[in-house]
Design brief:
This protein is mostly beta strands and 181 residues long. It contains two helices and 14 strands. β1 and β2 form a beta hairpin.
Length: 181
């Protein structure tokens, strides 16, 4: 695996190193030793899948508060998505800043989302599917979110939003979100 630092401290793009022949390829999605060497979370307690039918669907921007704040490892298994991270860490030099990576199954890239970040994505194709590894189990009483169109964050979504849940539409702006310690 190749680990590339993203512009927000602690966030990484991770590219697979496929080994292949005429049958196809084999690649590691996770190696505890390599994650430890990069100072990343190396224990995953929950794995989820997100299937999205329509192009333009937006899910996010979600996070969990301490003591259940979680790191995520995100991989696109079908279709393509624009994956976005926003730094919500108290005292961070990049607080309120965002970065994005386009994820496809063909590219073999993943995104490591550290604790203290809001995360979301927009589908760029129909039937986009993401595989999520979480460092903490989902905890409804610790969940939080950030408005996807907050002008103070100014995320540049690549295409028109075609589908957004009422819950995500009602999320607060950055000015109303308590920083995560």
């Amino acid at each position: 695996m190749n680990f590339t630092k993203l512009p927000l401290a602690g966030a990484f793009r991770i590219d697979l190193e496929p080994r292949g022949d005429d049958r196809g390829f084999f690649a590691r999605l996770f190696c505890q030793d390599e994650f430890r060497q990069h100072g990343l979370n190396d224990v995953w307690t929950q794995c989820n899948v997100s299937h999205n039918n329509l192009t333009g669907t937006l899910r996010g921007m979600h996070f969990q508060r301490p003591p259940r704040a979680d790191a995520k490892l995100v991989k696109c298994m079908a279709g393509s998505v624009y994956d976005v991270l926003v730094d919500l860490r108290r005292g961070s030099r990049s607080y309120g800043k965002w970065t994005a990576v386009e994820l496809t199954p063909d590219g073999g890239e993943m995104v490591y989302v550290p604790q203290g970040f809001a995360h979301g994505f927009q589908t760029l194709s129909p039937h986009a599917e993401l595989l999520y590894f979480h460092s903490e189990n989902y905890s409804p009483e610790h969940e939080g979110g950030l408005r996807h169109d907050d002008p103070d964050v100014n995320i540049a979504w690549p295409i028109e939003i075609s589908n957004l849940s009422d819950r995500d539409r009602a999320l607060p702006p950055l000015s109303k979100v308590e920083p995560i310690s």
